């Protein structure tokens, strides 16, 4: 009898595990090649996993809501397509008895620490990064199969350890204010994505020292150019041109001049990113938010940026983003102007060190300097907000970056569609 192992696929460079959110098949079901077997979720994106072969589902090794390491076998397909009903065993028994299958936190072969304790490479990596000693690791009570320590056990231990360091006999960590709901209130459970967003935002505020600078820029040239080319652009390229691609191109130019803004922090190290991967915040139909990024944005011209931005937005709103689409970003741009908001103070998208908010464009009276003296004219104005990580970006650097970005935008020539600076 020929069997084919279905393994948990690698969904991106930094992703080491995924949660099974739904099985679309059960043991004994016949499947064709490309039939969807299950849906998985990472902290990046949800994905459907198709069957690469035709056959019968012989065994399912993990249940819904279980966390599984990348590379672990999650199901077995009988390629002969025989009746497997008599061979079915409970999932728990299979994962305990099979030497070829590894539990959710185990990746390939478990690594031994103490004579009777085993740790996955993921747990080992976390322990090394967080300076957890061997003795501490051996003292953690595991919640996995046969008491094995899983990622959540280590993270919970770190929370408790941090609390014991910072708390004093008279001072403990503040507890959340209790909230009650009466019969007239509507109670809505957070979606999985909303929980991830909430955790990501809290982590960012706890990690980075947030500072926000703001500047108002004259975008009359950008508005006049867009009004002039929008019909021709739609006819030629097949999509509507917005103002944002111009601001993205200006951002790329400025990041190349200020590479310290295109960076990340790793402990006491500052990592200057050579690639410019621009994250674009996209609002979803369910009012959640996701940030896909334009890889190697500095290699694209204005039209290329517009096309890639549109492709990512469409994919995001139709739940068709790939994990790599939302990983590896180096700088994020969020467009508050979409909602007619003037100014905002966005939260840094970790592990980046800065984020730009683009406000609404509005007509305003402005003082212009001419060869005949100052005059008041109607101009198109917009606010830019830069939130940056004050751990490595001081006010002088953050302010200089934002001023230079504004200068680039104001230099945009409506006739040529190019920046003069």
In helices, the fraction of residues equals: 25-40%
Main sheet specs: 7 strands, mixed
First-last Cα distance: 69 Å
Shape: globular
Rg, alpha carbons: 26 Å
Helix and strand content put the structural class at: alpha+beta
Helix and strand element order: EEEEEEEEHEEHHHHEHHEEEEEEHEEEEH
The unreliable regions are 84-116, 167-173
Number of H- or I-type helical stretches: 9
Give the mean pLDDT. Answer: 85
Give the total of beta strands.
21
Share of residues in strands: 25-35%
Q: Could you provide a short overview of the structure?
A:
The chain contains nine helices and 21 strands.
Question: What characteristics describe this protein?
Answer:
single chain; 421 residues; alpha+beta; four-stranded antiparallel beta sheet; 21 strands
Describe this structure as you would to a colleague.
It is built from nine helices and 21 strands. The protein is of the alpha+beta class.
Topology:
Layout: E1 3-7, E2 17-23, E3 30-31, E4 36-41, E5 46-50, E6 55-60, E7 67-69, E8 73-78, H1 91-97, E9 111-112, E10 118-119, H2 121-129, H3 134-139, H4 151-166, H5 192-207, E11 210-218, H6 220-237, H7 244-257, E12 263-266, E13 269-272, E14 278-280, E15 282-283, E16 289-290, E17 293-294, H8 302-317, E18 331-335, E19 354-358, E20 362-370, E21 373-389, H9 395-410
Parallel strand pairs: 14-18, 18-19
Antiparallel strand pairs: 1-8, 2-4, 2-7, 3-6, 4-5, 6-8, 9-10, 11-21, 12-13, 14-17, 15-16, 19-21, 20-21
